[in-house]
């Protein structure tokens, strides 16, 4: 099936077609047909991808619930990718985040998928980029809730259009992020549990101070710092408005399309570095690979074909 036809069938097939597509990309990883489908999803997709990241316990799942309800209330078809910690025994998702999400199972406009973080420390699973590409093609809005970040873990930044960083008061997170340089990544910063009063106000002040040190402004967008409380609902409307404002900002002048092209190059660069190390990552140009292969996922397979090294046993070493 041609790329455009496959994506049209995905959109028309509802939850069942989307579930089958996501299962297929996990079981058929690396197959040429699957890569072609994923690259078609990249070309045809236009859904806005929102990422929620931050330390464990910062309230990401609670915010996901709120945003999911707001998006459905606006009539947008929505997908959620909840990246959970992995079981050491099976490698599967522990489903800790998904159990905190509440949605009407009869609502065809909502689709929630849990994915295991596995051996990736950056808050995303091995197949999350592929799943995001598919969701982006099938839904008008996509929420990606990462497993939680530390000082150097920010994979989610190369996967989404709008990145929301969640910080909770009284945890020292803002000081840690000042050292880590994470303040260079988010488009919106949320201080959760704003009902904690003075602690929340102090966290907001600390975050604004960290932002001033990083001189964080991207192409005219000023990063807002928003206190939000899921308990009393304060700040939620302002958060929804900020996300929509950033989406509109990205669409103006084609910025969203340019950034998506840059992110695809980042996916290929990350794949090269992860698979072939720092030295191997400099052997091929991601943009050139994508141009030849026709998309980022086919580009990864093309890179494998070009960089495969056959290991020949050292006969001298085996001599006795």
TrEMBL record:
Q: Which InterPro entries match?
A: AAA+_ATPase, GTPase/Isobutyryl-CoA_mutase, P-loop_NTPase
Give the highest taxon in the source lineage: Bacteria
Q: What is this protein called?
A: ArgK protein
Every copy of the AAA+ ATPase domain together lies at 46-313
| Keyword check for Cell membrane | no
Q: Which Pfam families match?
A: MeaB
Record GO terms (molecular function): GTP binding; hydrolase activity
**Which keywords does the record carry?**
Chaperone, GTP-binding, Hydrolase, Nucleotide-binding
Q: Which PANTHER family match?
A: LAO_AO TRANSPORT SYSTEM ATPASE, LYSINE/ARGININE/ORNITHINE TRANSPORT SYSTEM KINASE
């Amino acid at each position: 099936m041609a790329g455009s036809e496959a994506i049209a069938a995905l959109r028309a097939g509802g939850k069942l077609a989307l579930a089958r597509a996501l299962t297929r990309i996990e079981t058929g990883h690396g197959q040429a047909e699957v890569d072609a489908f994923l690259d078609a999803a990249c070309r045809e997709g236009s859904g806005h991808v929102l990422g929620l990241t931050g330390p464990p316990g910062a309230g990401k799942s609670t915010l996901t619930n709120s945003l999911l309800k707001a998006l459905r209330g606006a009539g947008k078809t929505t997908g959620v990718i909840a990246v959970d910690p992995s079981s050491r025994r099976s490698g599967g998702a522990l489903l800790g985040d998904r159990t905190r999400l509440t949605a009407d199972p009869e609502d065809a406009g909502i689709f929630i998928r849990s994915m295991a973080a596995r051996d990736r420390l950056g808050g995303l699973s091995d197949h999350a980029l592929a799943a995001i590409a598919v969701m982006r093609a099938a839904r008008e809005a996509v929420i990606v809730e990462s497993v939680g970040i530390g000082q150097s873990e920010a994979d989610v930044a190369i996967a989404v259009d709008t990145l929301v960083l969640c910080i909770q008061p009284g945890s020292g997170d803002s000081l840690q992020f000042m050292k880590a340089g994470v303040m260079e990544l988010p488009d919106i910063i949320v201080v959760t549990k704003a009902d904690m009063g003075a602690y929340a106000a102090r966290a907001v002040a600390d975050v604004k101070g960290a932002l001033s040190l990083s001189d964080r402004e991207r192409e005219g967008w000023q990063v807002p710092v928003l206190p939000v409380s899921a308990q009393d609902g304060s700040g939620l409307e302002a958060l929804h408005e900020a996300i929509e404002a950033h989406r509109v900002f990205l669409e103006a002048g084609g910025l969203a399309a340019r950034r998506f092209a840059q992110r695809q190059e980042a996916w290929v660069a990350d794949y090269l570095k992860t698979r072939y190390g720092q030295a191997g990552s400099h052997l091929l140009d991601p943009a050139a690979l994508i141009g030849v292969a026709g998309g980022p996922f086919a580009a990864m397979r093309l890179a494998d074909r070009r960089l495969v090294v056959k290991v020949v046993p050292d006969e001298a070493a085996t001599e006795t």
